[in-house]
TrEMBL record:
Classification lineage: Bacteria, Pseudomonadati, Bacteroidota, Flavobacteriia, Flavobacteriales
One GO cellular component term: outer membrane-bounded periplasmic space
Family indicated by similarity: Belongs to the peptidase S41A family.
Keywords for this protein: Hydrolase, Protease, Serine protease, Signal
The protein, known as: Carboxyl-terminal processing protease
One of the protein's GO biological processes: proteolysis
Organism the protein comes from: Maribacter spongiicola
Disordered: region residues: 181-205
Length: 712
């Protein structure tokens, strides 16, 4: 893949140079037009399956952009859409001519309509809601027409705000009815009557909307233009995406699981940036002077005059707070108790522990198994030698082996994928050698990615857990282990179905020179990957050996439910030989299916999944309080009926590894996170069945002497 990709990118860069994308060419154009020109050029030359820019493409962009910026149809009116219609078949021509007239017209009207909306919701919330009236609201907004005039638009807002307020009103009424209020405190703001409850509920909704529009006010024109660019980009496939400079940084942080800063998650408030979470191991955590609830109001750089961040965009405030490892930031903080303090911190590399692989011992009687949870296939794109998913999983396997593991569960549920290189290396931990995945480029040339290391780090029983949200690299690993008959895959009927490869291209690299600053990057689909048996995971995903239902079973979540996915196909299989470690792979699967078929917990999960789907399909909501209460009572009865799902006890014991228990003495937050994880695992019927399968593989299906290396 690297050889072909490098060729494609070099060709693109060479062609760009010959097209003279210089500042001189664009000296009369703004940054937006430059972005549009660069991105459409990259898509045309580099995308695996580029789209033709024609009238059909134009219509899709038109409809999708309107839907993206006004999904509930509470800003634009029918007259606005009629005015926009003249651009419906012209957007393709605008793109070719680097013209952004359509965006400008829609953006200017959106700003006007959002200004109008502030007045409308204030007007609506001045009048009490009548919850005795028999009326309803449809939340299937895509089937609703745009409002014909301001009166109709105001009525739409009224229903939406009444719907938004209904839950708060019910909560206040219930509190008022169920709790005798004895407080005589003059600051007690608890509602004492239905009228007060209704008034306070409207006020709460107004506050929420004020905060929302405060956030919207922070958005700049460039933020809306990014939405427009990504509407165009999304027409190519759901995984091609433009990153503005700030979003590219967030993407890199997500993939590497680390960043340089102070180690706190912040939320914008009127008074400043509120600390809502302290990241274990970071500078704030180590310093221990700041706590959740403190509000940062000024930021200084190593003794320099501080900058007031009250009212500042949160992203801009975060830019001031973050910085290079070893530098000092001075934070003026309003403490939870109201006092002011200046706290100086030395910035450092902060690791997001929840992004990384974690493991635990599973103890069942005299047997001990291991489980590794992998949330994503993470990697530092700038330095592969840094922490990555493959090396971390290898370390956890060794640690589990040292503690006597007799079988391994690799949990890839909710793992959306990540680095292709790490999944190839990870698969190599469990087989001697051979192909792991096949990758095809747009010119139909094929590369086979092999594990060339003959060392097998774990040759014992292996189960892989997946669900509908296991995607991309997760599907590569599960498919390879399934094709080799190396592991038993337990989970949803099929995984997500993402069988495409993306590469991130910095747009600054496309220019000889640039006066516009950082232009961001585009993540573009350049290849498709295939199983070693030749089949694609695109759309179809990986079908589990043992299918078990979960809460997502009837919800539309997969690649097939996304917009503009690439199609399914197949290529010739690679040369590989199935794993010979198991005597009766099929019998193990059959025994597990029989257990699952007779499990009352599994039957209840299936029933719950169907109920959730029915709830999702209910799009007509009553705004009558009595009807709302009746529906809520029915939902409570169902919720109580399904309550036993969360009370299930597998009777398995989960225990942290020795190295981690040593960390608990200094890190109570980590201890609490692990205790919570273990508690959830003990209620997990899928993990319980994974252990049952490991027992079958260990006791009945492993060739004599196969585990000698493990025991040693």
């Amino acid at each position: 893949m690297k050889r072909n990709l490098a060729y494609v990118l070099l060709l693109m860069l060479a062609t760009v140079a010959s097209c003279s994308f210089t500042n001189k060419t664009f000296e009369n154009d703004d940054k937006d037009k430059l972005l549009l020109d660069l991105i459409t050029y990259v898509l045309e030359k580099g995308h695996y399956e580029p789209k033709a820019l024609n009238d059909d493409f134009s219509v899709h962009v038109f409809e999708d952009f309107i839907d993206v910026i006004d999904p509930t149809k509470r800003y634009f009116m029918a007259s606005d859409i009629a005015e926009f219609e003249k651009y419906k078949y012209q957007i393709d021509d605008e793109i070719k001519n680097t013209d952004i007239t359509f965006f400008n017209v829609v953006y200017e009207r959106l700003m006007q309509r959002m200004g109008d909306a502030k007045g409308i919701y204030k007007e609506v919330l001045e009048t009490p809601f009548d919850y005795s009236e028999n009326e309803s609201i449809s939340i299937k907004y895509d089937e609703e027409p745009f409002a014909a005039d301001r009166k109709e638009l105001k009525e739409r807002w009224r229903k939406q705000l009444k719907y938004a307020t209904l839950g708060t009103y019910d909560s206040k009424i219930s509190h008022m009815e169920n709790k005798e209020i004895e407080s005589t405190d003059e600051h007690d703001h608890t509602a004492h009557s239905p009228k007060e409850a209704e008034e306070e509920s409207r006020k709460s909704t107004e506050t929420t909307l004020d905060e929302f529009f405060d956030f919207v006010n922070d958005l700049e024109r460039k933020d809306w233009f990014v939405q427009y660019i990504n509407t165009i980009v999304d027409e190519f496939d759901p995984h091609t995406f433009y990153f503005a400079p700030e979003e590219k940084e967030k993407f890199d942080t997500s993939m590497s699981g680390k960043f340089e800063g102070i180690g706190a998650r912040l939320q914008k408030k009127a008074e400043g940036a509120k600390i809502v979470e302290i990241i274990s191991g970071g500078p704030v955590w180590r310093d221990a002077r700041l706590e959740v609830g403190d509000e940062i109001i000024k930021v200084g750089q190593n003794g320099e005059e501080p900058i007031n961040i009250v009212g500042m965009r949160l992203d801009d405030a975060i830019k001031l707070i973050k910085g290079a490892q070893g530098t000092i930031v001075d934070l003026t903080v309003k403490k939870v108790d109201g006092s002011l303090d200046v706290v100086s911190l030395t910035r450092d590399v902060v690791e997001l522990e929840e992004s990384y692989a974690k493991s635990a011992n599973i103890i069942k009687g005299e047997e001990k198994f291991g489980i590794i949870n992998l949330p994503k296939f993470y990697v530092d794109f700038n330095d592969y030698s840094e922490r990555n998913a493959a090396t971390d999983v290898a370390k956890e396997v060794e640690r589990l082996k040292d503690e006597g593991m007799e079988g391994l569960v690799l949990d890839l549920r909710d793992n959306g994928g990540g680095s292709l290189k790490t999944v190839v290396e990870m698969a190599g931990l469990f087989i001697k050698d051979g192909p792991i995945v096949q990758v095809q480029s747009k010119d139909k040339t094929k590369d086979v990615y092999d594990d060339k290391d003959e060392r097998i780090q774990w040759d014992g029983p292996l189960v892989i857990l997946v669900n509908e949200l296991s995607a991309s690299a997760s599907e590569i690993l599960a498919a390879a282990m399934q094709d080799y008959k190396r592991a038993v895959v337990i989970g949803s009927k099929q995984t997500f179905g993402k069988g495409t490869v993306q590469n991130v291209i910095p747009l600054n690299n496309m220019l000889r020179s640039n006066d516009h600053g950082d232009l961001g990057a585009i993540k573009i689909t350049t290849q498709k990957f295939y199983r070693i048996n030749g089949g694609s995971t695109q759309l179809e995903g990986v079908k589990s050996d043992i299918v078990v239902p979960d809460r997502y079973s009837y919800i539309d979540l997969g690649e097939r439910d996304q917009s503009n996915p690439l199609g399914w196909d197949k290529i010739t299989p690679a040369d590989y030989k199935a794993w010979d470690g198991y005597i009766d792979y099929e019998k193990t699967i059959a025994d597990s299916k029989n257990r699952m078929a007779s499990s009352e917990q599994i039957k209840l999960i299936e029933e719950n999944a169907k109920w959730l789907k029915a709830e999702q399909d209910e799009t007509e909501i009553s705004l009558n309080f009595d009807t709302y209460k009746e529906e809520k009572e029915k939902d409570k009865e169902q919720s109580d009926y399904f309550k036993s799902l969360t009370e299930y006890d597998s009777k398995l014991t989960f225990k942290s590894l020795g190295y981690e228990e040593a960390l608990f003495t200094k890190d109570s937050v980590l201890r609490e996170k692990r205790n919570r994880w273990h508690k959830n695992l003990a209620k997990d019927v899928y993990v319980e069945e994974a252990v049952n399968v490991l027992e079958d593989l260990k006791v009945n299906n492993i060739k004599q002497g196969k585990l000698a290396s493990v025991k040693n």
